[in-house]
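Hey L., structure's done. Input below.
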Amino acid sequence: MNIHALQTGTADLKQAFLHPRPGFRGRLGLVLPGEWVPPIPIHAWLIEHDGERILVDTGETEGVKNLPFARYNVTAADELPHALAAIGLTAGDLDTVVLTHLHSDHADGVVHIDGPVLVTDTEWHAAHSVLGRIAQRVSRAPIPASVDFQTFTLSDGPFGAFAASRKLTDDGRVLVVSTPGHTPGHVSIVAIDDEGRHVLLAGDATDSLEQLQARRPDAITPDPKLHVETINRILAHSRRHPTVYVPAHDPESQARLEERVLL
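Output:
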């Protein structure tokens, strides 16, 4: 099994986003003037296993709009086709494309995908609820149209510490696990490598390893208690199985993946 990091630009974030105050004060800090932190990467991931190529998230595009708490640095040369070309592939070489959630920095790159794109039914329904539509309008980040989104359920039961899962490969070495909190239907991908380590491609389950270890909900979660419950499940899973934790925006994620650094 090979797992490749695909970087599709960077983002500048406010300190108030990465280290929010609890409750309403934390939300308010997102729109007030404040300190910005150094750029963080916007990663997607490519898993090669047993003749299959599985893309996890699709990254950002140059048309992304800035937010009060996020400024994006993405050019056409950063987008998914160029990231795939760097490892000798094209979008036509992909067998499966799955999204951890429908936020733009994980989903805008679906415009480069001709085939189906998998997203959980929970995430799809939340994104198309009244609140979800309002959020897309306010952020000027609509879900890309003319894409073959296909919803799926986590129907394979618990996996490790995670309450629900769905196999992506017949041998069960690549699977989707439930990690709600950042969004209602957020999922992560577990890839069990050739040495039996569980590489957790975590999307935005947390922004960083530091946030995971601090057990801190993020600034935009609709349910902080649920988010902390998911964080606790990830930590519990790592106590049962050797786990490499790889969130999409941690500057150390690529090195942690390459060196297989365990939690």
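The chain has one domain: 2-259. The longest strand covers residues 2-13.

-- N.
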